[in-house]
Each structure stands twice: as structure tokens, then as C-alpha cells.
Target: Flavin reductase domain protein FMN-binding protein
Amino acid sequence: MKKSVGAKTIVYPTPAFVVGTYDKAGKPDVMTAAWGGISSSNPPCVSISLQKVRYTYENIVEREAFTISIPSEEYVKETDYFGIVSGKKEDKLSTSGLTAVKSEIVDAPYVEEFPLVLECKLVHKIDLGMHTQFTGEIIDVKVDESYVDAKGLPDITKIKPFFYDPAGRSYYGVGKNLGQAFNIGKEIK
Model:
């Protein structure tokens, strides 16, 4: 029997995205966002949902661009810090010792030390209540060469991304491989 816990924002896994933007003065800023994910295959898009009071919110509206940097497990403290401090009050990148890199494709920075980056131009914005959902077309994905597999694609076991648990308010690493997608299900036939 299942127990009701009420209407809550619980889904697994929930990402630990680090969203990069420039403010009106051109200062790079980052924030951690857990409400997000892939929202279209063609064109490739990712969506994030932010509260209007967030500094990053106005940056995305102004610049019509953002990046999503995917941190590895070694940067869990910095990623958490990016979500608890406002860029209005602090230069988070400078304080953390991490490096902002200007995207050559969109008007937004990304975090150099994080192994995977999505560069996005804003294509859609919708008010959902407390949050606004921003959909960005993924213009390019960049991955550090040391984090790719034999086919030249991102290797999750090398990247070691981590996830946010909204119920327990904790971070967790990636688990073991359970099977090949679009293949293991064929065993049921």
C-alpha cells in the first residue's frame, strides 16, 4: 500500500544544473537549479524553472541566453554554494575559486572546471505560478576531452554528475548501469 505525502515537488532524479548568465553590467553569475530537464529532441531544448526573485531570472530575460554546466561530484560544495548565495550580493565564481568562460556561441558564461556544458539561446518563457519556465534551444554541447568515451561522446562514469533529492534535501551520485536503453525492454517480449 502506498502512503500519501501530499502534493510536493518530488521526482527522481532531479538535476543539479549550474545555470550561467551575465548581468546587465556584464558580470558572470551562476546559480544552481534543480527544476529542469530536456524538453524537446528536435530542436534540442532544455527547460529550467526559476523564481522571479532570482538574480538569474532577470539576467536570462535581459540577455536571452544561458548555459547549463554539469558539475562532477568533486564540485558538490561549490554547486550547493551557488544555490544558497545570491549573485546580487556576492561574486560566487570568484569566492569559489572557479573560472567563468565566455561562450563563443551564446551571450552567457559557463564554468570551466565542470566537464559538460550546454549553451542555450532562450526560445520560450512561460509563467507557471511561483516559477517561470525558461526553455533554451541547445545550440552546442561541450565536453572536456578527458570525459568522453571511445565514440567521442560524454561518458557518465567519467563525468560523475550528481543529483538532488528534493525530499531529503541531499545530493547523490550516479549508481550502477542497469541495462542498455531501447534494448533491455525487448527481453519482455
In short: The two ends are 29 Å apart (CA to CA). Residues 163 and 170 are 8 Å apart (CA to CA).
